[in-house]
Amino acid sequence: MKGIILLAHGSRDPQWTASFEQVRAAVERRRPECATALAYLEQSVPDFVTVVDQLIARGTTLIEVVPLFLGAGGHVRNDVPLLVERAVARHTQARFLLKPFIGDAQAVLDAIADYAAAKPATPS
């Protein structure tokens, strides 16, 4: 089985995760053959290690990790690759694919620019 982990930063505010849950549900609809899960680096649950363990327990043998970060800060350059390296070492029966962070995708940048440049329906 294949799995997708959407990896976001996390927040103390429990409402912060709602948008990411919408993304998870949309990915699940687009890739129903995959087990899709959310994980957070800090302050929100579940964390990355827990989600990896859960997917492996379900028989997942290939896990795509999608960092939901707009910029290539320390988390993207250091923390995320380290988490994936540790998962590879712990779960030798599985393969991991670390995808580029979403802010590196031209389609994402174009969507943000389109949203920002769109004229409001009614001025405030």
Structure description:
With 124 residues, the protein is α/β, with parallel strands linked by helices. It has a single domain (2-117), classed as Rossmann fold, CATH 3.40.50.1400. 42% of the residues lie in helices and 19% in strands. It has four helices and four strands. It has helices at residues 18-30, 48-57, 74-90, 106-117, and strands at 2-8, 34-40, 62-67, 95-98. The protein has a four-stranded parallel beta sheet with strand order 2-1-3-4, with helices on both faces. The radius of gyration is 16 Å and the shape is globular. The model has no long low-confidence stretch (mean pLDDT 96).
Can you give me a brief rundown of this structure?
With 124 residues, the protein is α/β, with parallel strands linked by helices. The chain has a single domain, classed as Rossmann fold (3-Layer(aba) Sandwich). The protein is built from 4 helices and 4 strands.
Structure characteristics:
single chain; 124 residues; alpha/beta; Rossmann fold; four-stranded parallel sheet; 4 helices
